[in-house]
Amino acid sequence: MPAIDEARDEAVAAVQTEGASQVAQATAQRELAEAAAALSEENADAAKNALTSGPRPLELVQGIYGIVGTVRFVSTYLGPLVRLRRSSDNTERDFGPAAGGDWVDTAEITAWLAGATASVKTFYDQRGFKHWTQTSNATQPALTISGTFAWATFTAQQNFQPTAAWGGFARYKDAVSYSLLAKVDAAFTTGRPIVWFSQGTAGTARRVALEIDSDLRVRGNSTTHDNFTGGYLTPQSDPLILNTWFRVLHRTNFRGGANSVIANGLEKSIVMNEVVKTPDTSSLSVRFNNTNPSGLPISIAGFVAWDRQLTNDEATFADAELAKYAPGYVAPTVPPLIWLFGDSRFQETQIPDPNQRIQKVLADSFNPYRRVQNQAVAGTVITSARDALLSRTIGASEVVLVQSGINTDLEDTDANHSAYISQFQEMYDYMPAGKRIGFNTVVPQQSAVTGTSRNTNITAFNNLLRAAFPNNTIELAQAMSTYGGNTTGAPPAAISNDDLHPNALGVSAVVAPTQKAFIESKGW
Questions:
Q1: For residue 293, with 0-12 CB atoms within 10 Å meaning exposed, 13-18 middle and 19 or more buried, which class applies?
Q2: What share of residues in the chain are helix, strand, coil (percent, to 5)?
C-alpha cells in the first residue's frame, strides 16, 4: 500500500542520512501506517460510510477520554462501533454506522444474521484508546434491534470490563465525569452499581460509581474505600421509568467541589471535602454491570467519560445533547417567539425590578415558558415603533404585540388619529401570512376620567382601532380601567405607578394576563 511503501522508503533514507533517531521515527510511522491499513481493510464496511455533518455536540465538551456506544458520537471516527458474535456459528464481525447516519447499520446486521441472534463482544472506543471487550461468550450482552436503532441488552450475569487502563491516561487523578444512555428492562430486588471506576490498591483506592436501587432511583458515590463504604453519596434522583430510556451524568472531584448526579435533566448534589491522600499510579479500571453477586437487567446505547469535573454549564449541555440520541427521541416543540413593540408602557423603566416587568412576567405566565423579546423604547412615537418592526424579520409563527401611542397626541386632539391608524396598518401589512399581531387599545391617563375631553378623544381613537383591526385588537384600556370594579373610565391608583404608567401589580394583574389571554384566544 502507498502509505506503507512511503514509510518504508523513509526508514531506508534515514539509515543513509540522519542516523538511528530518524530510523526509529520512520519505523514508528511505518507501524502506524500498517495499523491504519489493517484497520481499514478489516473494517471496510464501516469505513465506507461517509461522515454525516459534524462535529457532534458531545465532542465539543473538552476532555473526553473514552466514548463507546451503538451510535457514533465523534464526527471524525470512521471505524466500527461494535464487534458482534453470531449465535448460529460464533462468527464475529465488526459493524459501523449506516451510510449517511450515525447509528450502527441495523439493516446490514439483520442480513448478516440471517435469522440468528447476535451478542456484543466489543464496544470500540471512538477516541481510539481502549476498547471494551468481553471474551466470555456466556457473559456477552445481546444486541437488540428496533428499526434503525440497536443497543446492548444485559442480563444479570453479563458485563464489560476493559482489560487495561481505559482512556488515554493512566488514571483519572482528582476528578472524573461520565454520562450514560440506558434503560432498565425489568424489575430487580437488590440495588447495585451500574458502572464504576476503580484506581489504586487497598488503602489508596479511589472509587467512583453510579448506583441504582430497586425503586429505580440513582445516585453517585465517590469514596476512597475499597468497598464503597463511607463515601460521598449524592441524594437519590427521582424514580426512573421501567423500559424507558434515561440518561444520567455523574461528576465528582476529590480535591473538593460538588459530587452531583443529573438524572434526566434534574440535578442532585452534595459538597465534597478535599481528600488529601493521593492514589498510586496503578491503572484505572472501568466496569459496566460487573458486580457481585449479579448485575442488572439493563440496556445501554452509549457511554462517555471525561478526565475532569465538568462545569455546571457543560454538564447541562452534555445531558441535554445525550438525550437527543435516545431511540424514539422527539424534539420538544419550541413555542413561537413573542415580540413587544411600543413605548414606556411596555418598557416599564418605572418598575425597578426587571423580574416584575412585562417581558419576564408575560414569559413566565405561559406553560411551557414562552420567549419574549422587548423592543419597546420609552417615549417612542408610533413611527419609531413601526420602523423598529419593519427592520426585523418576523417568522410566520411569531407573535407581535404593539402598545404605542403618545397620550398627548391622542387625548388632547383627534387630529392625529388617522395618521396613527395608517401607521398601524403598515405594521399589519408587514406581518407574514396569518397576521399574528395584536394592537393594544391606548390606556387613558389616570386623570383622563369619563366626561373629560381627553377620555372622549382616547375613546374615539380606540373605536377607530377596533374598526380597522377587529380581529387584532387587545382590550387593554378596558381591562385597566375596570380593574377591581373601578368605574372612573381610567386606571385606578392601585395599579398605577403614576398618571401614565402601570406599577408592578398593574403588570402582573392586568397587562400580562390581558396579552396572554389574547394570544391564547387566537391559538398563537
A1: exposed
A2: 30, 25, 45
pLDDT category at 332 given cuts 50, 70, 90 is low
**Using an 8 Å Cβ cutoff, are 134 and 159 in contact?**
yes
3-state secondary structure of 313: helix
Q: At what angle do helices 417-430 and 382-390 cross, to 10 degrees?
A: 10
pTM of the model: 0.57
Instruction: Name the DSSP letter for residue 62.
Output: S
Rounded Cα distance, 240 and 250, in Å: 16
Task: Provide the mean pLDDT of the chain.
Answer: 80
pLDDT tens readout for residues 437-462? 999 999 998 889 999 999 999 999 99
Candidate CATH numbers 3.40.50.10860, 2.60.120.200, 3.40.430.10, 3.40.50.300; the one for domain 57-323: 2.60.120.200
Which grid cell is 67?
Answer: 466514548
CATH architecture classification, 338-522: 3-Layer(aba) Sandwich (3.40)
Please state the domain extents for the chain. 2-41, 57-323, 338-522
Type of residue numbered 512? A
Asked if the model's pLDDT at residue 34 lies above 80, the reply is: no
What would you report as the CA-atom Rg of the chain, rounded to the nearest whole angstrom?
Answer: 33
Average pLDDT, integer, range 254-280: 74
Spatial contact of 430 and 387, defined as CB atoms under 8 Å apart: no
